């Protein structure tokens, strides 16, 4: 958490500095209803502190870039992983400050290793065999609690996609932040 040491301006060293968004005083909670996770709120000032919006190299930081980009593209719904759930209140503060619309949000559970660690390409970086695509899609649908029938394990990829599209439901994923292998 940033302690706010440079709130009154740069240190005077002449070195490039980052620009931070002043979050205000602790005690103000920013919240929203997530379509899957339900109500989520955060006291950004107390839990995060002033956050970078312009890096010292002059490039926009993620929080600012995503807010401006979403608004410029007219994004009305954001679907992304739960690892970005706690970024949303910061983005909402920026949207309000810039008088930009706030989209709806849906944060999907992350696929994790059995030990709870985040799934990483460097740990399971194996090429996928296209001939196994239907079986792999069946396995993923099962991990996502969509309950595909066992007989679809040997179905064509097109048949499996048709089933998945027709039966997709967010309900089994309600309030889940992770799904373990």
Description of the structure:
The protein has helices at residues 44-47, 62-73, 88-97, 121-124, 133-143, 157-167; strands at 19-21, 30-34, 38-42, 51-54, 77-81, 104-108, 110-112, 178-180. It has 181 residues and is an alpha/beta fold. The protein folds into two domains: 19-108, Rossmann fold; 111-180, no CATH class. The strands form four sheets. A two-stranded antiparallel ribbon has the order 1-4. Strands 2-3 form a two-stranded antiparallel sheet. Helix 2 packs across helix 3.
Compact overview of the structure:
The chain is α/β, with parallel strands linked by helices. It has helices spanning 44-47, 62-73, 88-97, 121-124, 133-143, 157-167, and strands spanning 19-21, 30-34, 38-42, 51-54, 77-81, 104-108, 110-112, 178-180.
Helix-strand layout with pairing:
Layout: E1 19-21, E2 30-34, E3 38-42, H1 44-47, E4 51-54, H2 62-73, E5 77-81, H3 88-97, E6 104-108, E7 110-112, H4 121-124, H5 133-143, H6 157-167, E8 178-180
Parallel strand pairs: 5-6, 7-8
Antiparallel strand pairs: 1-4, 2-3
Strand/helix succession: EEEHEHEHEEHHHE
Structural class: alpha/beta
CATH architecture of the largest domain: 3-Layer(aba) Sandwich
The whole-number mean of residue pLDDT values reads 89
CATH topology call of the largest domain: Rossmann fold
Q: Biggest sheet, open or closed, and with what strands and sense? A: 2 strands, antiparallel
Give the overall form. Answer: elongated
Computed Rg: 21 Å
CATH-defined superfamily of the largest domain: HUPs
SS elements, strand count: 8
CATH class of the largest domain: Alpha Beta
Oligomer: single chain
Helix content: 25-40%
């Amino acid at each position: 958490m940033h302690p706010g040491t440079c709130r009154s301006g740069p240190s005077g060293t002449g070195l490039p500095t980052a620009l931070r968004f002043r979050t205000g005083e602790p005690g103000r909670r920013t919240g929203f209803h997530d379509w899957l996770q339900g109500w989520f709120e955060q006291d950004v000032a107390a839990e995060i502190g002033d956050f970078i919006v312009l890096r010292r190299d002059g490039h926009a930081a993620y929080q600012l870039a995503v807010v401006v980009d979403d608004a410029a593209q007219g994004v009305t719904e954001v679907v992304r992983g739960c690892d970005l759930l706690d970024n949303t209140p910061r983005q909402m503060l920026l949207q309000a400050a810039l008088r930009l619309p706030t989209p709806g949000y849906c944060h999907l559970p992350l696929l994790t290793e059995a030990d709870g660690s985040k799934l990483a390409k460097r740990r399971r970086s194996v090429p996928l065999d296209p001939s196994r695509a239907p079986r792999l899609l069946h396995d993923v649908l099962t991990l996502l609690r969509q309950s595909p029938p066992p007989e679809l394990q040997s179905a064509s990829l097109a048949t499996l996609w048709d089933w998945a599209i027709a039966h997709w439901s967010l309900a089994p994923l309600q309030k889940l932040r992770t799904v373990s292998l």
